[in-house]
Amino acid sequence: MTIYQKYKQQLKIERMSDAPRKLFFRNTSNQPQQQSLAKQGNEQPNQEGNVMPTIQTKELNQLGLDAIQPGELGMQQINVLCLNGVQQFQGMLVATNYKIVFLPQRFLKEYKKDYFEVPYTFLIKVERTIDKKQNDSNQIEISSKDGRQFKYRFQREQSEDCSCLFNVINKNAFTLQKTTLFAFTYYREMQSLENDYQGWKIYNMERDFERMGIIIQQENQQQQLIGLFKYLNNEGGQICATYYNRLVVPAKVDMDCIQKTAKFRSKERIPILSYAFKVDGKIVSLWRSGQCRVGIGQIRSLEDELYLKQMSQQLIDEIDNKQEEIKLRIYDARSDVSSIGQQVNGKGFENPIYYKNCSVDFLEIGSIHKIREVQLKLLKNSYSENISFISQLEISQWYDQIVSLIQGSVRIAMTLTKEKLNVLVHCLDGSDKTPQLISLVQIMIDGYYRTIDGFMILIQKEWINNGHQFCQRSAIGNKQHNDDCRSPIFLQFLDCVYQMIQLYPLSFEFNVKLLLDLAYHHLSSLFGSFLCDSFLEIQKQKVMESTVSIWSWMLKQKDKYKNAFYLNPSSIEFEVIIPESFTGKSIKFWQEYFLNYSTEFNDVYCIHSSSTFTKDNLQEMYKSLAKENQVLRLAQIDHEKLAHLNQQKFNQLIQIIQETKNEKIIEKLESIQLT
How far is it, in rounded angstroms, from Cα 273 to Cα 305? Predict the structure, then answer.
């Protein structure tokens, strides 16, 4: 039996038993005695008679790891040289079942404590090479999705250790079997967290539409029209495999029309209702869908045309308008050239000649491939030593895309609130730019989605439930680092929300820490919320029953995300916040994220953390001042009561003396005034 086989066998035994958080590592004879962190164990001969080192154990936190997740186990450790492109560090490399961590012998204060910690699903590229210039030493090079790059150099005699570690990293980082991801291990230790906060149940469709004041007809009430919309059962993906298990559609369309419309839409993603509100006796609605399948031949679907005609209705008893005025505006997130090009693939966009009462506008937003390219340029610039950061930031074009997204969302929001027209938004399949746009629109026009709970619900309903491909876009378990499906769509949306917070700092209940945690954990595989590409996949993989929702974790530490200067929409003159004049001049660089590990941005004195708007600092001060004001108000009330009582007694005294008719005493008392 080889050393690696023995290691795998021992690891399997330890996993089967509910072992405490231990680190399993090997004492190799080539390592200096002073660097070993475990006691020497007994060496046992193998079948060939060779002496093999036994596997030792030691508590992970005794190795110097700052953050150890419940259920995290050590798998291997070895002393290596780490290079980050600027400096080199001597230290110990530790592989757990959640992440790979390098512990330098001397930690430089200009680096953040978690700089060398990389969860496996953050890895986008892992390569093993041999450095001919360094005495044929083995190297493992890793690239992280947030831009960090490390090179671990092993001594020539550590070749077997390098091979073992390389296999451990690949096995944990690039697995297509979701149940092997750390989120499932984390749940076994933290099931009580999910039971206490019920994050998977944060979104309730009926409750959300009731809050909007919109009546939705139940599935079993098809004979009685009580509104413009009705619920549609999509259990098991019977209508659309990438949508939620319950949809809202126009009340007047029958099942035959729905099914034929699904065949005419990309990935069967029919138009579904996302948001609606009442104004001037009418209902204004926001819809989402995939592109239609018109092709080069301009194929028509009478059912799809009828479906959109019913979507344009704003009154229950509304009849067809003979003048055919525009009632539904379709916003295609792509450019007109890109949309026309899709006709070659049998798809395309709606022709207003056939879709009565509709108009089509193009928003000119970049493709997922464009977004991936500009992010790579931005991350390269963020970790570069090049002093021309500003010019390189402009060259990356990341914020050109951010401006396009926000400007497109403004156009949609203005159509809904100013023109009071119904809106349909789609891109290719309606799962990338579409959730970006409709989520930003709802944040702009509804203050509820700017609260902590509301923002969580928004992401759950528009992104997780309705089929944003988190697994593909984040390349969870994907070894092909050049895969075209990978794109930072969700991160781009979070950056847009960051821009909105900078523009309207009093209008958001949450602070930037919430965005930073979402940006980190949608890649970390610590929670089950972002592991799948659809709600149906979440159900099939039993993710809700076997992982913790990120919302449970966030709800537990809700105070951490509170903005102390938040003003409830009822306290703001206008609840709607639409940045109509948003341009490149409005952009603020999101340095808390993109420069998180940059030595130039490192907050050595922790000033930033102590000055952010959290309960622990400014909000605590606010509460203290409010308490003092309350004490002063009570004291003032007591003073007023006492003064009133004294005045009453004084008046009674004057009355008694007046009855004695002593003019001198009466004259002297009348000259006295009580305050």
Answer: 17
pLDDT score recorded for residue 655: 77
Distance CA 417, CA 415 (A): 6
Q: 548-578 pLDDT, tens per residue?
A: 999 999 999 999 999 988 988 777 666 899 9
Return the pLDDT at 251. 94
Q: CA nearest 91: which of 120, 71, 65?
A: 65
With a CB cutoff of 8 Å and minimum separation 6, the contacts of 490 are 463, 468, 470, 473, 474, 518, 522, 530
What amino acid occupies position 562?
K
What was the pLDDT predicted at 441?
A: 98
Structure-block tokens of residue 635: 């004291």
pLDDT in tens, 403-457: 999 999 999 999 999 999 999 999 999 999 999 999 999 999 999 999 999 999 9
CA-based radius of gyration for the chain? 32
Cβ atoms < 10 Å from Cβ of 544 = 17
- Phi and psi dihedrals of 90, rounded to 5? -95, 135
Q: List the one residue out of 216, 211, 223, 94 whose CA is nearest residue 161.
A: 94
Mean pLDDT over 151-178 rounds to 92
Written as six digits, the tokens of 375 are: 């992010």
Whether 473 and 493 have beta carbons less than 8 Å apart is answered as no
AA letter at 235: E
Q: Which pTM value belongs to this model?
A: 0.82
- Interatomic CA distance for residues 427 and 332, integer angstroms: 6
For residue 606, what pLDDT band results from cuts at 50, 70 and 90?
A: low
Distance CA 327, CA 269 (A): 22
What is the predicted pLDDT for the residue at 673?
A: 57
Per-residue confidence band for 15, with pLDDT thresholds at 50, 70 and 90: very low
Residue-wise pLDDT tens digits, 462-515:
999 999 999 999 999 888 888 889 999 999 999 999 999 999 999 999 999 999
Query: Is 434 within 8 Å of 272 (Cβ atoms)?
Result: no
CB-based contacts of 671-675 (< 8 A; 24+ apart in sequence): 674/643, 674/646, 674/647, 674/650, 675/643
532 catalytic residue (yes or no): no
Element (H, E) at 275: strand 272-279
**Cα separations (Å) of 301 from 208, 242, 292, 350?**
32, 22, 9, 10
DSSP state of 67: -
Least Cα distance to 267 among 84, 426, 98, 119 occurs for 426
- In angstroms, the CA 244 to CA 266 distance is 16
245-262 burial code (b ≥16 CB/10 A, e <16): bbbbbbbbbeeebbebbb
Of 162, 164, 292, 427, the active-site residue reads: 427
- DSSP secondary structure of 296-365: TTT---HHHHHHHHHHT--STT----TT----EEEEESS-HHHHHHGGGGT-----TTTSTTEEEEE--P
Please tell me the distance from the alpha carbon of residue 271 to that of residue 423, in angstroms, as a whole number: 11
d(CA 482, CA 478): 10
Mean pLDDT of the chain: 85
pLDDT value at 460 more than 80 = yes
Least Cα distance to 508 among 469, 451, 456 occurs for 451
